[in-house]
Amino acid sequence: MKEKQLTLSQLCKELSISYATGRNWLRLGKIIPTYSDSGVPQFSISYVTNLKKDLGACNNSSLKSRRNKKYKSGFGLYESYVSKSSPNIRAVSDIVNYIKDNEVEVTEDILLALLSDCAGKLIKDKYKGEKGARCQMNYIDGDKDCVAQISTAHPDLFCADYTYISTEDTLGLLYISLRSLKNRKEKGAYYTPTEVVNSLISNLFSGKDITSKEIIDPCCGTGNFILQLPETVKSENVYANDIDDISVKLARINYALKYDISDRDVVISHITQSDFLIDNGEKKYDIILGNPPWGSEVPYDDFVERALKNLKENGHLSFVLPESILGVKSHKKIREFMMSSCRPKYVEFLGEAFHGVQCPSIILHVELTKGSFTTKGLVVNDGGRVFTIDTDRDASADSLSIKMTDKEYALIQKLSDGKNKATLKGNALFGLGIVTGDNKRYISQVKTSDNEPVFKGADIEKYRYNAAENFISFTPEKFQQVAPEHIYRAKEKLLYKFISSDLAFAYDDKGTLSLNSCNILIPQIPGLSIKYVMAVLNSSAAQFVYSKLFGSVKVLRSHLEQIPIPIADDRKQKEIIAYVEKIIKAKKPQKEIEKTLDKKIAELYGLTGDEYQMIKASLK
């Protein structure tokens, strides 16, 4: 019986590659058909099966580099930017894969050619069969002779079919994916996923009469926020600008397509290549929205301040920003500025919402009132838990602590009331772990007579630590940063994880060294044992205060210094320490003992049963 044959398309599906890649492999002789049927290549099942095995083991040298690129370096596709069900993901993915497979250098000419091809196809798809001025909206200028040369050299790059979707930034998806392939550092330009844009838009425009409101996105990128604006927003009231010339060209196309504008001058006058911080002048708007650049040479604080100055009275600002703007010390000035002129309306905690970016972010919506600052009426969306603050809370520019309901806020006030409590501020020594400057040189995984154990943050758990797997020769003069040696060698000290959303303190009386992911605390509160203080810091009550007031993934000294620690007499301390020592001495985790100890700490804080359960529920 003749063995079943597969077409090239079927082979591509079996190997999980694009059809364009398969065609290229065939052209280069990297795959060989069993025979051709009327010029159509056919591949035997056994050939394809063996090819899959070779790819899995990387035995096929001609395809090995391709395999490594796909499975080690990823697609380069900004998948979270649009809906997972988008039909355009496959088109962009095929282009990205082809570029990787064939090691195509994405020059400016190739980039513009691909974007122009995409724009032209989107225009044609929207205006099927229509001719005339509407189809002359491609603002991407490229050398036509160069485009012809590129399409001749790489025809598969121009085979993609794009579907026009009115609320989808397909041009942005292609541009972002190609920018990452070019390894161009995007100066804080984190393109906002459509899901986040929709959340900002739905909150900002809910229940508002916006037909006559003037709106600007001062850092528009490729125009995703413009695409998501409600249909009731008139085109003549929409403005946007950016400093990136290609982004502006793409935003112009998106704007023209959304509003069916064929007048080039109108489009260019509304979507400009300019610097909002410098070029916007004194013009004021009813609504300013968007995602300012993060981590760039210009801090996002400057965008917030500039935007507030360009708002009309009772105007609204809604930005996607790093969560750190609410509490980190370096952003105190912008918090002071906001508190002097704004009323917060909505805050949504997004977590790590950006592809490949480890930075928790928020949507911050404020109204310019120039009246007294108040938290009353502020709506908070904390990971799906939505609540309204109904009280006028004591607010400080040191930290805007809003990640709590009114009941939780009242409980924080009770825990922090200062009665029979102390803090670590002025009552502790702190030490940073060692920064070697070159861990490969100074850190070993092998114990020798010349080195000693050194802890990392990953080694630390509540009350205890795992056996160190890293070793170091203590030569402080060679290290980039090091605490005084007496801090490391202290008779008793606490070690804690520096990068963690959960507090975890372990007891050390062996003078063990630690690296910078594991910092040091030596409590010196008069009359309080170090083991007692550790139990308090490891408790649910302390974690509750830390989470609600700071919510940082970095455990900072300034945060720890504000956690209230209940004063206990010797009898109560001895009772607590007895539990602690059982946990420390045990070889296995002691969950039941830890639960009992946690309740004992709650009693020292004066918590009722209901309040303790509220804390436990909140921490879940």
Estimated radius of gyration:
30 Å
Unreliable segments (pLDDT under 50, ≥5 consecutive)?
64-75, 182-188
Helix content: 25-40%
Beta-strand segment tally = 22
From the spread of the alpha carbons, the general shape counts as: globular
Average predicted local confidence, pLDDT: 87
Order of strands across the widest beta sheet?
6-5-4-7-8-10-9-11-12
Number of helices: 24
**Protein structure class:** alpha/beta
Specify the biggest β-sheet: 9 strands, mixed
The fraction of residues in strands falls at 15-25%
Through-space gap between termini: 62 Å
Report on this model:
It is a single chain. This protein is an alpha/beta fold. Helices cover 39% and strands 16% of the residues. Strands 6-5-4-7-8-10-9-11-12 form a nine-stranded mixed beta sheet, with helices on both faces. A four-stranded antiparallel beta sheet has the order 14-21-18-19, with helices on one face. Helix 20 (540-549) packs across helix 24 (609-619).
Helix/strand layout:
Blueprint (H helix, E strand, L loop, with lengths): L4 E3 H8 L3 H10 L6 E3 L2 E5 H13 L3 H12 L15 H14 L6 H19 L17 H10 L16 H12 L12 H12 L9 E3 L6 H4 L10 E5 L2 H15 L4 H7 E3 L2 H4 L5 E6 L9 H10 L1 E12 L9 H10 E10 L9 E8 L10 E4 L2 E4 L17 H10 L5 E2 L5 E4 L7 H4 E2 L7 E4 L15 E2 L12 H4 L4 E5 L7 E4 L4 E2 L3 E6 L6 H8 L2 H10 L7 H4 L4 E2 L3 H16 L5 H14 L4 H11 L1
Parallel strand pairs: 4-5, 4-7, 5-6, 7-8, 9-11, 16-20
Antiparallel strand pairs: 1-3, 2-3, 8-10, 9-10, 11-12, 13-22, 14-21, 15-17, 16-17, 18-19, 18-21
Helix pairs in contact: 1-2, 2-5, 5-8, 6-8, 6-11, 14-15, 16-20, 20-24, 22-23
